[in-house]
Design goal:
Helix content is about 40%, strand content about 10%. The protein has helices at about 30, 35-45, 55-70, 115-130, 190-195, 215-235, 255-275, 285-290, 295-300, 320-325, 325-330, 350-365, 385-390, 415-425, 430-440, 505-515, 520, 525-555, 560-580, 590-595, 600-615, 640-660, 670-685, 700-710, and strands spanning about 20, 75-80, 90-95, 110, 160-165, 170, 200, 210, 240, 280, 310-315, 335-340, 370-375. Helix 19 packs antiparallel against helix 24 (about 700-710). The radius of gyration is 27 Å and the shape is globular. It holds the Pfam family NAGLU_N.
């Protein structure tokens, strides 16, 4: 049995994600607002850029089908709507039946504005007419068994279904860790330093590079040369340039005139390199340093370029939408973005209600300057339900009803349809479990950026003697005073609190329901992934409590309690590692082997493995007695990493803690740091191999750990 296609507006996960997709015209709501900005952006974004021919785009869409579902390569026909007969002036796709004269056995015709719309239409059809589910490989992969054989595909009613984009742009990328057209932060080599010694600034406030002052004439020359060289290297393929001036770096002055001159210089450099240049800027700075970026400073930067020559990414709009507190970025076009993930951490988390309504609220608000939707996560391959929903918002003109009241008799809500497709069948326990998860784990409304700081994966670098003695009462989360993703300062003496925004007991109820469904769903790869992830999360949150209990026992000089809780904490690490080892998608081995496989020489192989190990652990810039300020930023719940890295770290700490208590001595934090950092350096340079294939039965292990710790 396949679910019936929804009547009004089905949902879509984009199969073809692009950095920026320009489409021909704004929606009616936006066109009535900043029309001049729309026109300028539309003209500039097109410019001299080469556009693929209809034949090339149709072939690209067919290539997606061939890779995804090769058995049905002839069952679909793709057609670019080059003359606008289907979509008019908007961007859309239309799904319809091929009449009896269809060539090569084609049954379904998908028409669209670009290859992106064609691929989107294909996915929409597979989801809502065939009950298929497409997820990242590392979150369960594509579930296509429900797609009927060629010649038996479900027909579309009447003349077909047409869906238009409510906004014309898509964005997909996080530039936080990438240097792309960094005009305001260009590193100047030795020759340039000698030439412009008066205007090159190595102020440590701006971390670890030299900055060329925008007021220097050479700034524009360097920027122009950079863009010219980029065009020479990659071709004349874009008019859009990312430049982030003071992301997590405060300007030297809050004087609006200075800030405006800085913005003008940046755009002047861009436009000299490419007369059609459009400046794409992350809006993260307006959130992370909100105390600095007040209305005068924001306006000075945003209005320093010609109308329509800047697009802002409202980077964290799923949690802290800047458009609401800045009068639509004071008239500057922006893209509503979901950030969601920091450092590629593995944590079940989301704000489904914000995702399902936020882009619609922004687009339909008074004088809206919203021109698109985007995803800006720092890591992928996690929380598939969040990304499934967010990607649909590219084609949603109305809010999504994630869950409907049980007393309504209208068609199934989004969440039930999602779980049906994800696991290939209906299951009452699973539906109840997802209802709980929707109201708990995926309903974070506290406004805190979720960066996983569970004690197993980000062990506190702190002496228990410096912590307040009422640890047992401090079980609530603490809001950070600053909003930066990381703070380049000495480790704080206060105990960090992992983020907890939901009832752990309710989440455990959801896990129990998942386990109850195991007999029916255990062979489903998507079920196994979700089961392991939910079990991991429940045990990790439990470990946070155990850690606090251990520190509380130490402060009370209770050696028996310290031993008991230490043993439980370390045992949890080992047991979670065993759990993660039962699913291919939670292993350290593939990460390391993938890095090594890119090497051409043995030296490269060593370097790439060191890089891969270092990124998920210490992040390199440590000393013998001080961890990197970014240590554990990209922490991972991966089997192999827990036993070989997180376990020894915690064990060394608690061993010293126990010995200090027995000998009635204060904890020597610096000695522990020396010991631990030396081990970390050794591990980063290690060559030991880790499993690349799962071992053990995920359902059996999850049930066993549930009985041991949670029942």
């Amino acid at each position: 049995m396949r679910p019936p296609p929804p009547a009004p507006l089905p949902f879509l996960l984009l199969l073809l994600l692009v950095l920026l997709v320009h489409l021909p015209s704004p929606p009616a709501e936006a066109a009535a607002g900043p029309a001049s900005a729309w026109g300028a952006i539309s003209a500039a974004a097109g410019g001299r850029r080469r556009v693929a021919s209809p034949a090339e785009q149709e072939a690209a869409a067919a290539g997606v089908l061939g890779r995804l579902l090769p058995s049905h390569a002839r069952s679909f026909r793709f057609q670019i709507d080059s003359k606008g007969g289907v979509c008019g002036g908007s961007s859309c796709f239309r799904i319809s039946n091929v009449d009896g004269s269809g060539k090569n056995g084609a049954e379904i015709l998908i028409q669209g504005t670009t290859a992106v719309e064609l691929a989107s239409g294909l996915h929409w059809y597979l989801k809502y007419w065939c009950g298929a589910h497409i997820s990242w490989d590392k979150t369960g992969g594509a579930q296509l068994a429900s797609v009927p054989l060629p010649g038996s595909l479900p027909q579309v009613k009447a003349t077909g279904v047409k869906i238009e984009r409510p906004v014309p742009w898509n964005y997909y990328q996080n530039m936080g860790w990438t240097t792309i057209t960094k005009l305001a932060g260009s590193t100047i080599g030795t020759a340039e330093e000698n030439t412009v010694s008066n205007t090159v600034n190595g102020d440590p406030r701006w971390c670890c590079t030299y900055l060329l002052d925008p007021s220097d004439a050479l700034f524009i020359d360097v920027g122009q040369a950079f863009i010219k060289q980029e065009m020479k290297e990659y071709g004349d393929i874009t008019n859009i340039y990312n430049c982030d001036t003071f992301n997590e770096n405060t300007p030297p002055t809050n004087e609006p005139a200075y800030i405006s001159s800085l913005g003008s210089a940046i755009y002047e450099a861009m436009s000299r390199g490419n007369k059609d240049a459009v400046w794409l800027m992350q809006g993260w700075l307006f959130y992370s340093d909100a105390a600095f970026w007040k209305e005068p400073q924001m306006k000075a930067l945003l209005h320093s370029v010609p109308t329509g020559k800047m697009i802002v990414l409202d980077l964290f709009a799923d949690v802290k939408p800047i458009w609401q507190m800045s009068s639509q970025f004071y008239g500057v076009p922006y893209i509503w973005c979901m950030l969601h993930n920091f450092g590629g951490n593995i944590e079940m988390y989301g704000v489904l209600d914000s995702i399902s309504s936020g882009p619609v609220d922004a687009r339909t608000s008074h004088n809206s300057t919203m021109v698109g939707v985007g995803m800006c996560m720092e890591g992928i391959e996690h929380n598939p339900v969040v990304y499934e929903l967010m990607s649909e918002m590219a084609f949603r003109s109305q809010k999504v009803e994630v869950e409907l009241p049980s007393n309504l008799t209208i068609p199934q809500d989004w969440l039930k349809i999602y779980s049906y497709r994800r696991y290939g069948q209906s299951n009452v326990d699973i539906e109840k479990a997802w209802g709980i998860l929707y109201h708990t784990i995926y309903n974070c409304t506290d406004g805190i950026a979720d960066h996983n700081k569970d004690y197993i994966v980000e062990f506190p670098d702190i002496s228990p003697s410096s912590i307040s003695s009422d640890i047992s009462k401090r079980r609530t989360i603490s809001k950070m005073e600053k909003h930066r993703r990381f703070i380049l300062s000495e480790v704080s003496a206060s105990l960090p609190h992992p983020h907890l925004w939901y009832s752990k007991n309710e989440a455990i109820k959801a896990l129990e329901l998942f386990l109850n469904a195991g007999n029916e769903l255990s062979k489903s790869l998507t079920y196994r992934y979700d089961l392991v992830d939910l079990t991991r999360q429940s045990l990790s949150k439990l470990a946070n409590e155990v850690y606090l209990n251990a520190l509380n026992s130490y402060q009370k000089k209770d050696s028996n309690g310290l031993n008991l809780h230490t043993k439980k904490f370390l045992e949890l690490i080992v047991d979670i590692d065993t759990l993660l080892a039962s699913d291919d998608n939670f292993l350290l081995g593939p990460w390391l082997e993938s890095a090594k496989s890119l090497a051409m020489t043995e030296n490269e192989r060593k370097q790439y493995e060191w890089n891969a190990r270092t990124q998920v652990t210490m992040w390199y810039d440590n000393t013998k007695i001080e961890q990197s300020k970014l240590h554990d930023y990209a922490n991972k719940f991966w089997s192999g990493l827990l036993k070989s890295y997180y376990l020894p770290r915690a064990s060394k700490y608690f061993t010293r803690l126990t010995r200090n208590l027995q000998e009635n001595r204060s904890f020597e934090l610096e000695e522990w740091r020396k010991d631990w950092i030396a081990y970390s350096n050794e591990w980063q340079s290690g060559k030991e191999l880790y499993a690349v294939k799962a071992t053990g039965d995920a359902l059996t292990i999850s049930k066993s750990l549930f009985r041991k710790y949670l029942s």
